[in-house]
Design goal:
By secondary structure, this protein is mainly α. The chain has a single domain, classed as Amino acid/polyamine transporter I, CATH 1.20.1740. 77% of the residues lie in helices and 1% in strands. The protein has a two-stranded antiparallel ribbon with strand order 1-2. The longest helix is centred in the C-terminal third of the chain and has 38 residues. Bound molecules: phenylalanine. The site of phenylalanine (PHE) has 15 residues, from helix 2, helix 3, helix 12 and helix 17.
Length: 472
């Protein structure tokens, strides 16, 4: 069975692939934006607490469910609770994979487009006011950029577990790390970068409220690729000899470290151009990456010249492309493994079919930033609020809402249906000393708390986001 489905070549192979899934736009774009908006280090502290106390046990149980069953999320839950509605949690995961990928690929397309256009001399144009709106509003261009990104993703997934996903993670993850640190070191030598560091690292607790906590939890789930079965799927290719706890811990730590490091790059970069930035004026949202960052590189032209500045700019966007690619791969792998396992279809055909479906749904998000009035002003919520575009709408449902919901359901499932006894038994394969250890006690305790905390935050998120009701 496992021979046919494929397996990682080693523990490192899994760690690299799972870290590749985790490190993506969520880290390099989402995390710095959220931190900038929500009180700097105060947000970072809440994020860290939620990641290690609430999300980490969910990381472990997802990997364990995957390795126990060696199946996709739907098949896995069906095997552990046959004939019950629990497999619909797997369905929600597969659907979330398709829908998250459908908007993710659009943003990845923008990043890829910025890389190509800066590399071919377009830095000055992209640093001009209003250019980002023109860029995202041009349907044909974005169709090509997102299409190329999708093709690359499908091609890698078609390659299989070891020769596709793992092989690319082995190339891309170390490259990404080197590129990120090279850029951080460079940016920190620029004038006023220190002010950015201070802004980033000095906490402002007055910004913390329940909305910020909601945002931190959704962000942590998204960043760890949690709550939709990506780790069940990747876990299903893990060898029985591997220690799941240490692998899961390394992935969690690495993902958080990269998010934190991306903040060390992006926030000081803002201050090199606008040293007087405050929490009120800091650019947040898509503008941060696509409007502000090109200006940061353009600002360097006076000192280092146009081509070196363009090189650095292209390098920056290429780094984000690599991060996004290892994530789009995992997003596609979830529905692909479902089609392969359930439909007994060949991986190649499955990946291409799912890729085409995702591309189709992605068109709505691609047209949602000015190209089409219908998708740009798609829906209105909460009542009386401004119109929400299609991309934001899909992200609100499948990122902000469905991932914490999935995390809540998976942890509830593990506690009450599958039972911690079985979880522990699975973990102890590859970690024989686990039962009775301090680590076991810690994880079991966190696992008992997690569903309640997640549920509480989830309800608040839904009420605030869709109904404009703030309970606390
Ligand atoms: N973790 C990825 C990121 O931070 C996104 C992702 C979410 C990937 C869910 C897979 C599953 O960008």
């Amino acid at each position: 069975m496992s021979m046919q489905r494929g397996q990682w070549s080693s523990r490192l192979g899994f760690i690299l692939a799972a870290a590749g899934s985790a490190v993506g736009l969520g880290n390099i774009w989402g995390f710095p934006i959220q931190t900038a908006k929500n009180g700097g280090a105060a947000f970072v502290l809440i994020y860290l607490a939620l990641t290690f106390l609430i999300c980490f046990p969910v990381v472990i149980l997802e990997i364990a469910i995957g390795r126990r069953t060696q199946k996709n999320p739907v098949g896995a839950l069906d095997e552990l609770a046959p004939g019950t509605p629990w497999k619909s949690v797997g369905m929600l995961g597969v659907l979330s994979g398709v829908m998250i990928l459908s908007f993710y690929i659009v943003i990845a397309g923008w990043v890829f487009g910025y890389f190509l256009e800066i590399a071919t001399g377009g830095l000055q144009r992209l640093a001009t006011d209003g250019e980002f709106s023109t860029f995202v509003g041009s349907a044909w261009k974005n169709l090509i950029y997102m299409g190329l990104f999708m093709i690359a993703t499908v091609a890698i997934v078609v390659g299989g577990i070891k020769d596709g996903i793992e092989r690319w993670a082995r190339y891309l993850m170390p490259t990404l790390l080197i590129m990120l640190f090279a850029l951080i070191v460079y940016v920190l030598t620029l004038d006023n970068a220190g002010k950015g560091i201070a802004f980033y690292l000095i906490p402002d607790f007055s910004k913390i409220n329940i909305k910020v906590i909601n945002a931190a939890l959704s962000q942590a789930f998204f960043s760890l690729s949690l709550g939709m079965g990506a780790l069940i799927t990747y876990g299903s290719y893990v060898s029985k000899q591997d220690n799941i706890i240490s692998s899961g811990f390394i992935v969690t730590l690495f993902d958080t470290f990269i998010a934190f490091s991306a903040g060390l790059l992006i926030i000081p970069a803002i201050f090199t151009l606008a040293p007087e930035t405050t929490a009120e004026t800091i650019p947040a949202g898509p503008g941060l990456l696509f409007v502000f960052i090109p200006k940061v590189f353009m600002n360097l032209v006076a000192d280092i010249g146009y081509y070196p500045a363009s090189f650095l700019g292209a390098f920056f966007f290429l780094l984000i492309c690599f991060a996004a690619l290892t994530s789009t791969i995992s997003l596609l792998e979830v529905p692909t493994s479902y089609v392969v396992d359930q439909g007994k279809t060949l991986r190649k055909k499955a990946a291409m079919l799912v890729g085409a479906a995702v591309f189709f749904f992605g068109l709505g998000s691609m047209l949602a930033n000015g190209a089409s009035e219908f998708f740009t002003q798609f829906i209105t919520y909460p009542k009386g609020g401004p119109p929400v575009d299609f991309l934001t709408f899909v992200a609100d449902i499948f990122f902000e809402t469905s991932l914490p919901l999935g995390g809540f359901l998976l942890s509830t499932f593990t506690l009450f249906i599958w039972k911690t006894k079985n979880l522990n038994e699975e973990i102890s394969q590859g970690y024989p000393d686990y039962p009775g250890s301090l680590v076991e006690k810690l994880i079991t305790t966190m696992l008992h708390v997690a569903p309640f905390v997640i549920f509480f935050i989830f309800i608040n998120t839904v009420l605030a986001k869709f109904f404009g009701i703030t309970l606390f």
